Every structure is written in structure tokens, then in C-alpha cells.
Amino acid sequence: MDSQKLLFSFLCLPLLLILLKGLEAEGHLQREHKKLFVFGDSYVDSGNIRKGFANSWKVPYGTTFPGKPVGRFSDGRVFSDYIARYLGLKSPIPYRLRKLMPQHLKYGMNFAFGGTGVFDTFAKAPNMTTQIHLFQQLIQHKLYSPSDLTNSVALVSVAGNDYTHFAATNGSAQGFPSFIASVVNQTATNLLSIQKLGVKKIVVDGVQPLGCLPQSTTTSFFQQCNSTLNNLVVLHNNLLHQAVTKLNDKTKGQSTFIILDLFNSFMSVLDNPSTYNIKDPRKPCCVGVSSEYKCGSVGENNVQKYKVCDKPNTSFYWDLVHPSQAGWNAVYNKLQTTGALQQLRN
């Protein structure tokens, strides 16, 4: 009987070793699971901007998802949520909540703050350089390992807050082209900084058509895009393309820098709304009752000073600046037909 047990153990040992090795490999894969690190502004902020600093923490923001305001500048999901979905991840935790929800650190982290830019803006929040510095601190504290970073994706959003700030602080029309060049140069510097920290796949948004935002089309009753603004955006995106091409040449395949074309994705939806189940492509869903109020505003005695459309799920824009969840979903669906998104999974 003892000899039979010995023989059985001998025969089973290789199988046991194979199983153990498989489990070890599985654990290794889990430790090196792809993560998403997000930098930028309100187009990707999932809750970093603090209460009291923005209407994104007020009703009716968040009514579609998750059912209450949580800081997202939309009635529901924002762009970073869709990129996380594409990667098969839960949305990365906002930096502000990193100590409260440590179990979500495995999906990455969101450092984006609504209203910010690559330079300082009106927002009292970290600009992109500071956001990257916060990321660097976490790496120095070994919250993320080198293998975590190698297998991860960085998403960088530059949605135009720098330009809003420039225009509002007596920036001249003649000075815009050189300022655009400085924004793109700083963006390229930031992309390189993220790469030097160990992230090998970095994706940056091209700027969306600022001239088609409801705040730019109010004078035409949300019918006509501002071509002057859109021409400036085209300049930004052309310079960004040149800068990213140089970065890819410089790193010689060691890293991949990718541009997501938000300009043409937005225009595709705005020009062909029915294709994406959008019925109100240019009119915002949530607006103030007058020009002195905006979406989420309340007056004395908590009186509601905004109005919301009947069907947010068919509106492209949620407020004067931000897409609705349906709008972001439409943009995401358009981007899936391009090759840029597919590079994130390779």
C-alpha cells in the first residue's frame, strides 16, 4: 500500500508542479494587469475637482450615471470612462479618493482636474505638470511598480482651457498662433515626462471643435459653428501631430505616442447625428434659465435656476461646454472605427 502511494505521488508530482507554475503565472499576470493613468481636465475628470469649486457636484449632474452628482462634468460617464471600458478596466479611481478606496488602485488612477490646462488657468487646481508630479510621487512611494507602468496606458486630455484663459485675459487675436505653439510644446514636454516615468503607451486627445461648443454657438441659436475658433483648433491639432511624430521618432519604438482625433469624431457626430441616435446635436440639454445662470445653478431658498431637456440620451451636449453621456458614447463609437484606439490594446 505504501509503495502504491509513493508511486501515485511520483506520478502526480509533475502535474502538481505544472499547476503551481500556472497559478504563479496567473498571479504574475494579475500583478502586471494593464492600468490606466489619466491626466487633464473636465473631459476626463471623474471626481477630483472638489465640491464647491464646480457645478459638477450639483444636481442634475450625474443623473444618468451613477444617479447622483459625483464630480463628473456630464449627466453620466465622461471620456476617460469609455477609454477604461475599451481597455477592459473599471474606471481608475480619482487621485482625491486614493486612500479611501485602495482596492481600486489596481485599475490605475485619475489625476485630471476640471478647468485645468497645461498652464495655469482660472481653476484653483493642479495644472498638468503638477498632476504628473503627483503621479511621480506615488511611483517614488512604490505604489506602482516598473512592470505596472510598462503594461499601462496614459490618457492625456487638453480640451482648450488654456485658450479660454488666454482669450479672457486680454490675449490678442494676433497672439493666438504663438500661444497655440507654446501650448503644444508644453503638451509634448508633458507627454515625454510621462514616458520617462515608465509608461510606454501614451495617448493624447486632439482638441475638439471649440467653435461648435454651445457656448460658442448661442448667438446663432446653436445652429452655426464659429469657424474662426475652429481654424485655431485645426492649427493646434496640426502642430500636435507634428510634435507627436517627432516624439515617436525620438523614442524609436521604445514607446508609442498616439493621438485620438476628437475634432473629426465630434464633427462626424454633429454632421450625422441620426447615425449615432442623436436628435439634438448642437443644442445643450441643461442650461440656466437666463444668461446669468448655468446648469446646476440655484437661487435664493434653493430655487432651481436651470432647465433640463426631456431626453438627455439623445442630446450630444449636456451643458454649454461638455458632452452628455450619449455624446461621449457617440464619439467613442466613432473612434472605434479608427486605428488609433486599436493601438491601445496591442
From TrEMBL:
UniProt-listed GO biological process terms: lipid catabolic process
InterPro entries per UniProt: GDSL, SGNH_hydro_sf, SGNH_plant_lipase-like
Entry GO MF terms: hydrolase activity, acting on ester bonds
Gene3D superfamilies per record: SGNH hydrolase
Keywords attached to this entry: Hydrolase, Lipid degradation, Lipid metabolism, Signal
SUPFAM superfamilies according to UniProt: SGNH hydrolase (SSF52266)
Protein name: GDSL esterase/lipase At5g03610-like
Keyword Signal: yes
Keyword Lipid metabolism attributed: yes
Coiled coil, from the record: none
Signal peptide residues on this chain, from the entry's feature table: 1-25
Pfam families: Lipase_GDSL
Family per record: Belongs to the 'GDSL' lipolytic enzyme family.
